[in-house]
Fold each of these.
Amino acid sequence: MMPQGPYSDIVMDHFMNPRNMGEIENADAVGEVGNPACGDVMKLYLKIEDGKIVDAKFKTFGCGAAIASSSITTEMIKGKTIDEALKISNEAVAEALGGLPPAKQHCSVLAEEALKVAIEDYNKKKGSG
Amino acid sequence: MKRVYFDHASATPVDRTVLKSMKPYFIENFGNPSSILIEEGAIPHRAVEEAREEIAFLVSASKDEIIFTSSATESNNLAVKGLALANRDRGRRILFSDIEHYSIINQADFLRGIGFEIDFVKVDINGMLDMEDLKRKLTKDTILVSVMHANLEIGTIEPIKEIAYFLKEHNILFHSDGAGTCGTIPVNVKDLNVDTMTISPHQFYGPKGIAALYIKKGVRLTPIVQGGYQEMGYRAGTENVPAIVGFGKAARIAMEEMDKRVEKLTLLSKRLWEGLASSIDYIHFTGHPEKRLPGHVSFWIEFVEGESLLLWLNLNSIASSSGSACSSNVLARDETGLKASHVLTAIGVPPEICHGSIAFSLGKDNTMEEVEHALSVMPGIVKRLRDMSPLYERFKKTGVRDYKL
C-alpha cells in the first residue's frame, strides 16, 4: 500500500473500503453528531432486535480518520447487545484502527458519541412507543 | 499513471541545473564566506555575491538591497518585526491583510505583547484587498502595512502597486510577501514601490532552507537575529552558501524561462478550470477569476470534505493541497490547529464548508495528459464521497443545505 503519512494501514483500508456504508430504512435508532471544530458530521443507523444490534450502517462527511472511525465502529457493534455496545470507548475505536494521530483522536470520540446518541434515540422511541 | 504533482505552491522540485550549481559548495568550495582574506573563503564569498546579483536582477533591485535568510518565514519576520522595532518612535499601529501567511499573522501576539496595536484589513469575495477598509483602518499612529503579493491558497494577485502608492502618500511603510510571485511572474520592486519584499526560491525550482528579503535603500530596519555582521548587519549567521548559489541559479533560469512557463501554465490551468466546471456540480472556484497566479486552480466542492478528497486524489496518483482544517494539521499534538482556513473564511466561505477546498498548483513540467487524468478521476471521487455524506443525503431529500451560501 502507498504510504499515507500519519494513517495506519487499517485506517486507510477502512477509508478506501468502508464497511456498512449507507442508510437503514426504518432504522430503530439514528444518531447524528457533528464536531464544529473540524466540520465532520457522522450519522449512524441501527437495527435492533431483542436488545441486540443486528445491523449498523453509517454515513459520514469528514476526513479519512472520521470515515475509518465510523466504519470500524459499525463492525465493532454488530451482534452486540446495547449494553455491550455502550461499553465501547473511543480509545477502543482508535486502538482497533491501529491508532490515530493526536489531532485526529476526536474522530474516534465522534464515533462513540454517534453510538450513544443513536442508543438514546432507541431508548426514547422505546419509552414513547 | 506516474505521479502527477499539482502542489507547486507548496514546493517545486529543484531544477537539475540548479542542483549541479550547488554541489561544489558542499565539499570543494566549503569555506566560510566571511573568511574573505583566504582563498577558501573568497571563492564562496564571490559565489554568494554573484547569487545576490541574480536575485536583485530578478526583482529589479540593487545588489545591496538583498539580504539572505533561512526561509520566507524568517524574511517575513525580519521585515515586520524589523520595521516595527526600527520605527516605533513614529507610531505603534500595524495592519495586516486578513489573508496573510501564518508567518505574518502569527506575529500579531508577539507584537501586541511589546506594545504594538495590530489590526486586520478585509479582503473581498475574490480575495482582493478592500481598499476602503484599509483607508478606514489607517490612523496617524499607523507605521506599517503588510499585504502579500499573491495568496497561494486561492491564487489571487493583490494590487500591490496601488496599495503602495496610497501608503506612500501617508508615509507608511509597506511590506509584501512575494513568496508566491517572485520567480513566477514579473516582479519589479521599484515599480511596485514596496519597502520590503520576501523572495523564496522553492516556488521556482530552487532549494528550500533559503530565502531573501528585499530592503529598499534608506529604510530603517532592526535585525532580529543577533550575532556576527553577515548580510550587511541585517541578519547574523553564516550564510548557507550551496543554497544561496542554487537560489541565484534558479533566479537566472526563472528570468530566462518565465514567459514560456506562464504561457504553458495558463493553457493547462484554463483546461483544468473549464473541465472541472463542466463535470462537477456544486463546485465553487475561489480567488480572482483573472488576477491570479498562472497554473493555479482552487475551488471547494459542496458536500465533500477536503482531506478525503485529497487522500483519494493521492490514491489516484495526484498530489494536491487542501484548505481543509483536517488536512492542515494532521500531525498537530492536539485539536487546536483544526480550524477552518482563515483565508477561506476571510473571503466569505462559510466555516462549515471550508473543509471541501482544494488547490491545484501546476508547474512547468506538468502536461495536458496529466490535466486530463485529473479531470477523468475527479467526478468519480466526488460521487463516492457524496454518496457517503449525510449532508448530501439531506440535500437530495429536502433541497435544503445545512449552511447558508
Note: Chain A has a mean pLDDT of 91.
Amino acid sequence: MRKRDRSPKTYTRLTHPLVRDARDAPLRRATWEEALDRTARGLAAARGAFGMFSCARATNEMNYVAQKFARVVMGTNNVDSCNRTCHAPSVAGLSAAFGSGGGTSSYEEIEHTDVIVMWGSNARFAHPIFFQHVLRGVHNGARMYAVDPRRTSTAEWAESWLGLNVGTDIPMAHAIGREIIHSGLVNEAFVLRATTGFEEYRALVEPWTLSLAEKVTGVPAAAVRELAHAYARAERAQLCWTLGITEHHNGTDNVRALINLSLLTGHVGRYASGLQPLRGQNNVQGGGDMGAIPNRLPGFQDILDGGVRLKFESAWDTVIQPHYGLNLTEMFEAMEDGSLRAVYCIGENPAQSEADGEQAVRRLRELDFLVVQDIFLTKTAELADVVLPATAGWAETEGTTTNSERRVQRVRRAVTPPGEAREDIDILCELAARLGHDWKYPDAEAVWNELRSVSPDHYGMTYERLAEHQGIQWPCPHTDTLEPPYLHGRLWETDPERRGRPAPFGIVRHDPPVDLTDEQYPIRLTTGRRLDSYNTGVQSGGYASPLRRGEYVELCPEDAERYGVVVGERVRVTSRRGSVLAPVWVDTGLRPGLAFMTFHFPDEVDTNRLTIEANCPIAGTAEFKASAIRIEKVSASGPALR
Amino acid sequence: MTVTPLGIPRRLLEFTLDGEPVRAPEGSTILDACRAAGKDVPTLCEGDTLTPKNACRVCVVEVEGSRTLVPACSRRAEPGMEVRTGTERARHSRKVVLELLASSVDLSTTPRVAGWLKEYEAKPDRFGPDAARVDEEPRVDNDLYVRDYGKCILCYKCVDACGDQWQNTFAISVAGRGFDARIAVEHDAPLTDSACVYCGNCIEVCPTGALSFKSEFDMRAAGTWDESRQSETTTVCAYCGVGCNLTLHVQDNEIVKVTSPHDNPVTHGNLCIKGRFGYQHVQNRD
Ligand code: SF4
Ligand code: SF4
Ligand code: FES
C-alpha cells in the first residue's frame, strides 16, 4: 500500500449558533440571543447537577474564566478537561511526590545532560520539536535509552531499546531501583536529606531481581542492569515519559515508580537532572494551572486548604465548595446514575475521545441539557441541545498558553473569525450575566491580571514581560526577577527549613493490565499517535498530508504471516467491548502478539470501540494502552458488519 | 542550589572596523560585529540557526595581513584585527560572485539581491544569455511544498537543516560533484517516495525560494502573492504540548504560510509538519 493522499472528513467552521427544538428535532440556526437564553435556562435548571468540560486547547484565560464560571455561577467544582484522558497521572504523581504537578526541567537542559531515558514515549512522532532538543543532547554525547513496547522511531536513536511487555513498567522500574540499591549507586546524601520512605521502598523492590524482571517484562536482565547503572552513575540525567506510562489503569502508580528512580539517584532539582512528562495538547499544563480541574483552584492551589479558599472567596465574592468536584471520568459515571444532568462542553470531543466510545455517546444522550462551544460541529456537538460557535484559540484569540516546560507564552489573533463566531470568554461572560454575574473583562489581559492577583506562581508574568522574554516558565512570583528553569532546587538545600517537605518514595505495586489476553483475545493492542495526525483528527484532517495513510491495524511480520493477512487486507479486530474493520499494516517495530492503532480516523475506524474503560482510581485516566483483541480474516463474501 | 547558571561570562574583545574601534563579545563573527555596528554586508548562504557553510562568498571583507579575502559570516573576530568591509577589492569580489550566481540561477525570489546587483553594478548578462543556466521545471509532487532547483545556489543550508543540525531525517543530500553537484532527495526521487517528514525546516532556511510553500508557489503563479498586503503574527502551535512558536503570514484574512522565529528558545526556527502545514482547519470557512 503506497502512501496516498487521504482526505478524511474535513470539518467546516461553525459560523452561527444552532439550537434544537426538541430532543429528536434537528439542530437549526438560531440568533445569539436565542441560543444564549436557551443555554442560560438549561444551566439554571441544572444547578447542583452540572459539569463543565473545559478545554486543554484553549487559552489559559479561557480556562480561568471557565472554572470560575463553574465555581461561582454554578456553585460546583465539577470542572475538568481532557487532561483526564492523558496526563492526569503525571500531575497526580508529581504533586504527590513534590507538591507540584509540572515537569521539573526545561527543554534546553536536555541538551546538556548525560543520560536521557525516554520511557513510553515516541517523542520523535508525538513531540517532534522536543525531540530535536533530545537529539542535540545525543549529539553532545548524552546516552539515550528507550523503554517502549514498540521499537519506535524514537527508539531508533537510542543506545539501547528495552522492549518491555505492555503494562510491566512498574516491574521494570522496581528492578532498576533494586539494581541501583544493590550496586551501591544510591545517592545516599540526597535520599537521607530530601526523601522519606526509603526503607519501605527498599523492601518493596527487593523481590524484583533482574531475572524476575526479565521474566515479567520480557527485557533481558543485562539491558535492565545497563540502564540502571548508566542512569545512576550519570552526573546529570533526564527521565521523560508520555502516555505509554499514564494511559493505564494504574497510571499514577507508574508515574510514582519512575519518580522513585529520580529520588534514588538525586536526578531531580538540579540543572539538567529532572523529570519531563511531555504534554499531548497545547495547553494541558495551563488548563490545570488555571484551576480547570476538580481539586485545584487557579495557581494549582488546593481547594481543601481553607486559607486558599478564603482568598478566592473574597476575590470572587462567592462561596467555594470545600470539597473536590468530580473529574471527567466521574462526571461520565454521574451521567449514568442521573446525578449529573447538564454539561457545558468547550472544545472537547468526548464522544470520540473517551475510551469505550459507544458508552460515552449513550451517556451524553441521556443528559437533560448539553451545550457545546466549539469551532466545528464535532460528533459531540451533534448531540448537543445548543451549539455555540467559538474562535480558534491559537489564531483568532488573544491570550496565553503554557507548554510542557511550564513556559507561558502569548497567543495572538492573526485572522478574523468566520461568521458570527465569538470568543470563548465573551460567550462565558454573556452567560454569566444572564445568570446574575456581571463580569467585566475588556480583554484577555484583564483576565490574566486577575489570575496574577490570585496565583503567586504567575504573579511576575505581565503580558509585557511574556513578550519580552519569549515566554516565562512558572513559578514566577516577582515582576523583576526570573527563577531557575528547573523545579525543586529546594530539595538540595542544607537548611531543613528551606528544603521544605521531603519527597516521599511511592510504594506502588505491579498490577497487570485489566483486559487480560487469553485464547479468545490473544493479541495485546496498544495505541498511540502518528506524526502528521492528531487525536480524533478534527483539526489535523483539515490539511493534505502526504504522509497520511488512514487508519489501519499494525501487526508484526510474524503475526501477519500467522494470520495469513497481507498489507492492505481488511480484517476484523474484536475486543471484549466491540469490533471494527481495519486494513492491515505491517511494522517491523512490533513484536509478536503486539498490535498498534491510533484514534486519528474515528469516522473510518473507531478504535475506541475496542479500548477498555478501566480507570486509574487516582487520576481517572483510562487504560487506552492495553486492550486484548483478536484478529480475524474477513472473507470477501462474508458479512462486513462494523 | 537555587541560582540560575548563566554560562561562562563572555569578555569583550576590541578590533578595528573600517577604521573605527569596535568591541564585540568573544566568539562573535566579523559579520556579528558588522551588524552590531550597523554595517550592511550582503549574505546569502549564512544562516542564523546553522553553522556557517562559506559557500557563496558574497560576504567577503578585507582583513589586514590576510592574503585572501575572508568570509565575514564565519571568521571569528580577533582582538586587534583590522577589518575593512567596503574596499575596492571586496566590492569587486562581491560583484563577480553576484554576476556568476545571477547568471546561472534564477534569483528573482531571493530577497534583497536585486538591490545588491544594482549597488555593486553587477551585470549577470555579460556571460551571454544562456550561461550555464540550470533550466528545469519546478517539482510539484505533493500538496505542501515545491522544489525549484533553477533557483538553487547550492548553499547546503537545507541539507544541514534536514541533517544532523536539526531535523536528523537526512532526506536531502547533495548528488553529483563539482559542476554537476545538485540538491536531491534519495536518488532524485519524488518527495513522496523519500524519507521526508514535511517539517518544512528546509524551506525555513532556504535563502532563494528554491524551496517554497505550495501555497506561495500557487499564489505567485496566479499573480496574487503580495507581501505588501501580508501581516505577520507570532502565536503558539495548537497541536502538541511542546509549544512551538508560529509566525502566521496572513493575506486577506487567509494564512498563506507559516514560519518560525529563529531566536525562539523552544523552536530555533524549526517546526514539525503539523505546526508548519496543519493550519488549514481554521480557515475551512465554507
Ligand atoms: S535548495 Fe535552497 S537551501 Fe537548499 S542548497 Fe539550494 S538554495 Fe540552499
Ligand atoms: S510544531 Fe509540532 S512539535 Fe511543535 S508544538 Fe506544533 S505539533 Fe508540537
Ligand atoms: S554568507 Fe558568508 S560565505 Fe555565504
Note: Confidence is low (pLDDT under 50) at residues 1-6, 637-642 of chain A.
